[in-house]
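Bumping with the actual sequence this time:
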Amino acid sequence: MNEQTPHTPSRRKVLRTTAAAGTGLGIGALGSVNAEAATGTAPATPPGTAATTVPKRVGATMAGVPFTGRSTVRVGLIGLGNRGNGMIGLYLALPWVRVVAVCDPVREKAERAAAQVVAAGQPAPAVYTKGEEDYENLCARTDVDFVHVATPWDSHYPIARAAMLAGKHVGVECPVAMRLEELWSLVDLSEQTRRHCMQLENCCYGRNEMRVLRMAHAGKFGTLLHGAGAYNHDLRGLMFSPTYYEGPWRRLWHTKLRGDLYPNHGFGPVANYMDINRGDRAVSISSFGTPALGLAEYREEHMPAGDPSWKETYIGSDRTISLVQTAKGRVIRLEHDVSTPHPYSRINSLGGTRGVFEDYPARIYLEPDHKDDQWADFSAYAGEFDHWLWKEHANPPGGHGGMDYIMVYRLMQCMRLGLPPDFDVYDAATWTAPVPLSHASIKAKGAPQEIPDFTRGEWRKARSGVDSVKPA
C-alpha cells in the first residue's frame, strides 16, 4: 500500500537540510532542534543523548488548531509516480478543490499529471520539472494552500520543511521522515509556522478501521488492553523490478536499516483506537528482527549476473516484531515484512476486557453479544457503527478499497470548512518514530527505546480525532 513515487532524491539536498544525515541514522533526539527549526537545519545528535530529551517549545501547540476556512482549496502535488499519479483524480473529484501545480523531475510524469487536470475541466496547472529541487519553486507559489508529498522517503523531510517555511500546509506519504532529528524539526516547524504537517495515513480511513474505532469509543471492547498492526506485504518483485520504482531507492533502505521501515499503516489505526496523543501516549518500543535472507535469495533466483543489485548487502530484518508500551500500560504489537512470501495483512487487531477484533479476515468476539468462544460476523455491526464518512460515501472511487478517497475528502473538507485536521504533526512523528527506534532496539538486542513525547504534555488532554462528528 501507499507505494511511494519512483525517483531517487538528491543526496546533496538531504545533506544540506539535515546535518544529521552525515553522522549516522539519527537514533537520538536533541535539545537544540528548536533553535534550528526556523531554518530547518537539525543539528547532529550528540553521542549518548537520550531519545526522550524534549526540546523546549518555541511556538505554541498545534493540537486542535483549525485550518482557516476557504471556499476553494488549492493543491500542489510533488512526486507523480505510482502513488502521486494515482491521487490526482481524487482531488479532481472534489468540486471545491483545484490542482494548481504539479512537480516531478521526470517531465513525462508531470505532463501526464497536468493532462489529467485539464481533462477534468480545470485550468492547466503549473508544471515544475527542472531538477530534483524544483519543488521549492512550487512551494513558493502564492496560490497554493496545501502540498501533497509523494516522493521517495529520504526527501520527505526537506520537502515538508520547505512547504511549511513557505506558508503551506503539507501532507506527506508514509513515513513522514526517517530520523528522530527530522521528526522533532517537523514538530517545531509546524508550531512556529502555524502550518499543519500531516502523515497521509490512508489506513486510518479504512471502513473496518473506522468501524472498530467507533466501537472502541462506544465501549464495546470494554477497557482496552492490547492491539496489533502490521505491514506484511511481499514486495520482492516490485523492489527488484527495473520499471516499477525509478531506481532502487526503496530496496536500498534494506541495506541501511535493520528495523521497521514502514510502521505507519499498522500503528496509525491502533493508535487511534487507543487515543494515543489524546489521553494516552506511546512511551517505549522494544524490537526484534530475524536474519536478512529473503531479498538475497530472491536476487539469486531472479536477477542475472552483473545486475547492480549484486553489489548490495541487505541488513534489514526480513521480519521485525515490535512491542510498544503506552502510558496506560497497554501493549501494541507492530510487524513489518516485505521480503518473504506472505499474503497481504495489516493484522489490525484490538482487544479489551469485553472482547477482541481481528482482521484478515475480519472477525469479532464480544461479550455479551457472543458465546461459546466462536468468532462472529463483523459485518453485523456495520449499520450501527460504520463511520458517517462511509455511510455518506458507500462506494468511494480510487484505490485501496476507497480509503484513499475518504482520506482526501475528509482532509479537504476540514480545510474548506475551517476545522482542525483529524490528525496532526504529533501523530505523524509518533507513528513514524518506530523507524529509527526499532533499528536502535534491534541493534541493542531488543532493549527498550523511549519514544519522545512530541506533544510536550498535550497528550493528557482528550480531543477529537478520526472519530469525528459530521459537520453541519
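The C-alpha cells above came from a reply further down the thread. DSSP finds 17 helices and 14 strands in the chain.
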